[in-house]
Specification:
two-stranded parallel sheet; 4-stranded antiparallel β-sheet; 4 helices; 31% helix
Length: 170
Amino acid sequence: MAKLLSAISILLVAGIVMARGQQTAPDTLSDGDKGAIVESVLDIELRTQASVPDFANIRKVSSDNIEFIEPSQLSKHSFTLVAASQLRESKKDRVVEYLLFRKIFVRDGAVVVVLSRVTEGRPCFGAAFSHERSYTYESRRTSGGGWLTQLIGRPAPMISFVPKRYATKR
C-alpha cells in the first residue's frame, strides 16, 4: 500500500511539473512590445548621450538581438539599423562605434534592457581593440499602453590616475 501511495504521489508531482512547463509564460513580450521598448530606450539614450559625463554621438545600432524591429522605427529617432555582419566586416580595417542591445528580458513585472556602447576595430597604425560600456534601462507599461523607460544603471566613470610628483628635499 505504501508503494502504491508513493507511486501515485510521484505521478501527481510529475504531472503538475509537466503541466506547468506547458503553460505559456505570462512574462513573454510580443515583437510589437519589444519594438516599442527599443524605441523608448533609444529616446532616453539620445538624452543620456547628450549629457556631459556621457558625451557620445553614436547613431548606428547593431541588428544583433533586435531582428524584430524595422529600420524605419529607428530612423525616426535618428538612428540607423546596421546588419551585424556589416559591422563585423567594417571593424577589420577601421574603428566603428555602435549600440548593441545585449539583453531584453522581463523581471518582476518590468522589462530590463541592457544596452552597450561599443567601440572596436583596427586603427590605421595600431592593434585591434574593443571597448564596451553597458547601460541598464527598465521599462514599465503605462496605463495608456505605452512604455515608460528609465536609466537604472550605468558603468562606473573611467578614472585616470595621475602620478603624484614627489618633492625632493634639498
